Every structure is written in C-alpha cells, then in structure tokens.
Amino acid sequence: MFACVCVYCAFSGIGLLCLACRNMQRAEAARQALLVSHPTAQATLLHLDVGNMRSVLRAAEEFKQMYNRLDYLYLNAGIMPNPRVDHKAFYKGLFSSNVVCMFATGEGILTQGDKVTPIGLQEVFSTNLFGHFLLVKELEPLLCQIDHNSLVIWRSSNKAQRSAFSLDDIQHQKGREPYSSSKYASDLLSLALNRHYNNRGLFSSVICPGLVMTNLTYGILPSFFLALILPVMWLRRIFTNTFTLSPYNGAEALFWLFMQKPESLDPMAKYHSLTSGLGNNYTQPHKMDIDENMSEALYVKLLELEDTVRKKLRDEDLDIKTKN
C-alpha cells in the first residue's frame, strides 16, 4: 500500500485529491497511474515527510495557502524499520492453533528496530503517530468548519496490541515492538480526537487493511519461503477473511469509509478490510481494545510533547538567526 497522506477536498461537487508524500518520484508515478484510470481526476502533489516535524509544518502551511476546505484526511504513511523474525518461533507457530493470529499480527515472531531522529523523537513514533498528530493540529482550521463535517482516517493494523503500549513510555524507547505500540497509540488517539472535536465537525476513524503483501512484507521473510507459503495463505483465506493479500483488497475499508457520513461511524470501532474465500471484498467493524481514560491520558501527553517540540524548533531557528 502506497505510504502517503491523502487529502480530499470537495468544491461545488468537484473532488480534488492531494497526495502528500515523502518520495515525490513515487508520488508522481501514483498520480499518473490514477490519471490513466480516471482521466478527469484532479490530483496534486505535496511534499511531506511526517517523520520530520519541520516538513509537517511546511506542508501544512503550503496546503492552507492552496485550499480553504478539507473533507477527508487519510493518514496512511508508516514505517517498520529493520523487522526481524524469530524463525524458531515462526516454524513452531506454523503448526499451532495460533497460526492465523501469527500471520495476521506477527505476534510472538516479529520485532523491529528503531532510532532517534535529529529532534530527539523515536523514529517510528514520530512517523507513525506524532507527525500525523501535528499535521491534524496544523490543519485544524480547515478540518473544523461549521458548514460541513470532516473525517480523519488512520490506517492502523492487526498488530495494534495493548500489550505493546505503555503510557509511561509512549515513544516505546524501552521496548522491542515500536510499530505495534505506535499503531495501538493511533487507535487511542482517534478516540480522543472524537471526544475533543466532534462538536466542531471533525470526526476520526480507524481502519485495518488485513494481511497485505507489500514490499515491507516481502522484505521480512526470504523470497523462497514466501513462494512456498503464499499458496497456503491463499487457501487459508477460505477459513479466515483477514488475508486480504493485495493492496487493492486492503484498501476496501478506506473506500467504504469515504461513502459513509462521518457522524454515523462508531468511534470505538476499527473498520477492517476483509476478503472472502471467493474473493469478495467487504468492510466489517470490530470493537477496539481501548478505553476513554487511557486515550485521554495519551492525548494530554501528546499536547505536552507538541509544546516541547514547537519550542525546540523555535529555539533552533533563533540560534540560526543569531549565528547569521
């Protein structure tokens, strides 16, 4: 699934799509592919690296100069750096009753690396959660308007597990599953955004694409082994509909949410892309393992961190001016 932030604006019934991406070459390729299938589409590009807070602030300002309305904000960007598989646990899990959960979530077999960004944030937390949070805050004037409702859509994961997240370590500096932690945090944050912004016309929802075979997935396991297990995974889809496998199937919930009224969606639900054994795609809500108190506590911590980051950026700008 193409890692980018997508924004959709409707003006007089005409939809405008903006692809906000870090890699502009891939963004242009995606735009051209879109125009081939939809020649009348209006799609623009915006450079955005959600792991870089200066890039987030610049992109948000540029967007606000171009548009005065924002209807849908798809937060699809994310990273899982240096994923590693415990091969002994993997082979053992293949013949256990936990095999479906293992494939769907990586539980017990998958760990990831992480590093600190120049501004002092954990890279996975910064890219998968905090950069998106800061973007939403920056675009608040466009998302919160009295004449229409807007929807923020977070791409979460089956790996969003409560056990991987701690309020005492929201950046997951001490753990080995930063991706899982960041995705669970996005579930919590979505709930908090609904609590704080619904009365201003901003709504938030979470989706899960299911098990999708992407470049990231192919990079985790050896190619010869993937060639062996892919037929098995296709067969298992007869029994478990979370094996969406293709990015097209995985995007089903993203499209389904676009067709709904934001105010009709359940803030406690994660909307899953599912594919039946016959290849039919559909969306189904599943209640998330989250609670109000934890989501509010995370929201407060993110607001505090936002103040800290903004102050650090201002201090850096001041130092540069002083030196010049």
UniProtKB/TrEMBL annotation:
Residue ranges crossing the lipid bilayer per the database entry: 216-235
Gene Ontology CC:
endoplasmic reticulum membrane
Quick check: keyword Membrane in the entry? yes
The alphabetical list of record keywords is: Membrane, Transmembrane, Transmembrane helix
**InterPro entries of this UniProt entry?**
3KSR/17beta-HSD (IPR052834), NAD(P)-bd_dom_sf (IPR036291), SDR_fam (IPR002347)
Q: Name one GO biological process term.
A: estrogen biosynthetic process
Q: Which GO terms describe its molecular function?
A: 3-beta-hydroxysteroid 3-dehydrogenase (NADP+) activity; 5-alpha-androstane-3-beta,17-beta-diol dehydrogenase (NADP+) activity; estradiol 17-beta-dehydrogenase [NAD(P)+] activity
Cross-referenced PANTHER family: 3-KETO-STEROID REDUCTASE (PTHR44442), 3-KETO-STEROID REDUCTASE_17-BETA-HYDROXYSTEROID DEHYDROGENASE 7 (PTHR44442:SF1)
Protein name (record) = Hydroxysteroid (17-beta) dehydrogenase 7
What organism does the UniProt record list as the source? Cyprinus carpio carpio
